Amino acid sequence: MDGHPEQDALIWVGDDLVATRRLSWAELDAEARAIAARLSELCPPGSRALLLYPPVEFIVAFLGCLYAGVVAVPAPLPGRYPHERRRVRGIAADADVSVVLTDSANAGTVREWAHAEGINHLPVLATDEDHFGDASRWAAPPADHDTIALLQYTSGSTGDPKGVVVTHGNLLVNAHTMITALEIPADTRFGGWAPHYHDMGLMAQTLPALFLGTTCVLMSATTFLKRPHQWLAMIDRYDIGWSAAPNFGYDLCCRRVTDEQLAGLDLSRWRYAVNGSEPVHVATINAFAERFAPAGFRPETACPCYGLAESTVFVSGTGSRPPKTTMIDPEHLAQNDFVPSVNGRALAGNGAAPLSDVRVVDPVTRQVLPEGKVGEIWLRGPSVAQGYWRKPEATARTFQAETACGDSGFLRTGDLGTVHDGDIYITGRLKDMMIVRGRNLYPQDIEHELRAQHPELGNVGAVFTVDTELVVTHEVQGRQDEADLRDLAQRMKQTVAREFGVQVGGLALLRRGGVRRTTSGKVMRSQMRELFLQSDLDAEYQA
């Protein structure tokens, strides 16, 4: 900051891409100091503060917490749906927060939520009010690498939220590792729409920009979901070199950006199109590169990455080199063998994992597996978080795993995959893997294949098993009559049988919004399974 205090640190853009809020480095520092000074009067270091904000004000308050030695607890603003409001209350209760921080525009709504949820004893403070705190009274608290910086709550159930304990050291090491491993130039502008209360938006988008001392440009996820073109237009207009999104974001652009919108884009300066947070599909990488090549998008810009909140965020990435693609024999993969083939399932490599000790482990026997076998990815290294907040048993199970040969201190990621030619490959989630007639199948593969072959489908589906039967639920686009839906359902069943060699036992077609998702957009397959079992899907068509 000392070298360029008047340079933009944060820019917030509205629906029309006009900058509605700018903060220079000097302004950001002053506002963070003012918040920290006030917090220091209210809370001792180590107290927890629940942060309920729109993006830019959130970043200011987050830094204010770090400056005060107060543990930040990011969460989404309480939504209109009861389960969303209960989840935020669950986070507040689990973290045992001392104060709720928000902005003046949302303070009334947050106070109503706190009253309705029975936690109105917590003070709700609007940190953007005039004279909230006196920056000149700020004094740096004692802190080191082991001091807790934030509790990052994962997308778990409402009744059992898990807060990942992330220290100052975790944040610094992870940002430095990502920047150096991916060779990100110091003048790179960051930006995107990923929600700030999730690890991708905060720790893979905003904090690396602050670490480098460059500019971060932010837009709301709602703007992107309504008009995906605006994300790409923002990258063009604000000269953004690094932007991250889950795989579905790139899919959405391929499906929704028109030829006319494409003609007005220049994506030639975009250097890192980071794809992570959910399974990366080679078909999406290729489709996006082909669709936006006329706008100057280069194939090597695609940057598949692997990460998770329990390892702060970043584990591995491909950087500026073209992503590797390996064709895998699906029959062997169904038996947990990673066998390259001329034809088969295409998998994207996620780069190497600097500073992480990686093992591929049988999740049942805990035997370390040899090269060429698929197992659970285990990690050990300085980016791995300290555990789950006040959950010693869950922490021991997940963060203190020991292999069969006695090698200890590993993080169990819950992700299945392998290491091949130095790259981490992810094949699916352990909890999502389905065993159908002795074959291991991954729901994301089936969902993606159905969307690729049936354009009538929407952007999200959920595949799961009930006993030994495969069940497909998926949203459809627009309104279709019963005959069309019946025909679509039949063709979808044929696709699954042809591509995956299994029969569909149940199928439900839903209107938009019918598939339940977390606040970060991840499909809640277990909840969809329960709704199916309870005959509570409200399907447009069911077979």
Automatic annotation (TrEMBL):
<protein>
    <submittedName>
        <fullName>Long-chain-fatty-acid--CoA ligase</fullName>
        <ecNumber>6.2.1.3</ecNumber>
    </submittedName>
</protein>
<dbReference type="InterPro" id="IPR000873">
    <property type="entry name" value="AMP-dep_synth/lig_dom"/>
</dbReference>
<keyword id="KW-0436">Ligase</keyword>
<comment type="similarity">
    <text>Belongs to the ATP-dependent AMP-binding enzyme family.</text>
</comment>
<dbReference type="InterPro" id="IPR040097">
    <property type="entry name" value="FAAL/FAAC"/>
</dbReference>
<dbReference type="GO" id="GO:0070566">
    <property type="term" value="F:adenylyltransferase activity"/>
</dbReference>
<dbReference type="GO" id="GO:0005886">
    <property type="term" value="C:plasma membrane"/>
</dbReference>
<dbReference type="GO" id="GO:0004467">
    <property type="term" value="F:long-chain fatty acid-CoA ligase activity"/>
</dbReference>
<dbReference type="GO" id="GO:0006633">
    <property type="term" value="P:fatty acid biosynthetic process"/>
</dbReference>
<dbReference type="InterPro" id="IPR045851">
    <property type="entry name" value="AMP-bd_C_sf"/>
</dbReference>
<dbReference type="Pfam" id="PF00501">
    <property type="entry name" value="AMP-binding"/>
</dbReference>
<dbReference type="InterPro" id="IPR020845">
    <property type="entry name" value="AMP-binding_CS"/>
</dbReference>
<dbReference type="GO" id="GO:0071766">
    <property type="term" value="P:Actinobacterium-type cell wall biogenesis"/>
</dbReference>
<feature type="domain" description="AMP-dependent synthetase/ligase">
    <location>
        <begin position="3"/>
        <end position="389"/>
    </location>
</feature>
<dbReference type="InterPro" id="IPR042099">
    <property type="entry name" value="ANL_N_sf"/>
</dbReference>
